[in-house]
Amino acid sequence: MIRNAGGIVTNDVIRSLTLSRWLLGTEHVLVLQHTRCGLHRLDETGLKAQIEASGATVPFGFGSFDVIAESLRDSIRRIAENPLLAHGTVRGAIYDVDTGWLEEVDE
């Protein structure tokens, strides 16, 4: 299990999945995002300004998104199209924190 803010596929997630694939033989990946995610519709500009007002520099984007299903499709695609992870299956689902239901999302 690899967890991060937003459940988005970052370069570090690709690195971890590559290690899992080639060292542990992982063949199947499930990308799971959830409703009520803090990155859903996050005001990145406002958050970055707040942090930078403290004197710190933010050298990265936070990965906010407007539509959970689209964010999930982007993450699935990023894994499926990576040549280091070309073998196996990639699926995605949205977990509804209110109902406990999983909704599978196709690429």
Q: Strand tally, please?
A: 3
* CATH top level assignment: Alpha Beta
Low-confidence stretches: none
Order of helices and strands: HEHHEE
Shape: globular
Give a short account of the largest sheet: 3 strands, mixed
* Euclidean distance between termini CA atoms: 21 Å
Chain-averaged pLDDT: 95
Class inferred from helices and paired strands: alpha+beta
Question: How many structural domains in the coordinates?
Answer: 1
Biggest sheet strand order reads 1-2-3
Strand content: 15-25%
CATH architecture: 3-Layer(aba) Sandwich
Helix content bin: 25-40%
Q: What attributes does this structure have?
A:
107 residues; alpha+beta; Beta-carbonic Anhydrase, Chain A; 3-stranded mixed sheet; 3 strands; globular
Molecular structure report:
- The chain has 107 residues and is of the alpha+beta class.
- The protein has one domain: Carbonic anhydrase (Beta-carbonic Anhydrase, Chain A, 3-Layer(aba) Sandwich), CATH 3.40.1050.
- 35% of the residues lie in helices and 17% in strands.
- The protein is built from 3 helices and 3 strands, in the order H-E-H-H-E-E.
- It has helices at residues 11-24, 44-53, 68-80; strands spanning 28-34, 89-95, 102-105.
- The protein has a 3-stranded mixed β-sheet with strand order 1-2-3, covered by helices on one side.
- Strand 2 and strand 3 (102-105) form a beta hairpin.
- The longest helix has 14 residues, at 11-24.
- It is globular, with a radius of gyration of 15 Å.
- The model has no long low-confidence stretch (mean pLDDT 95).
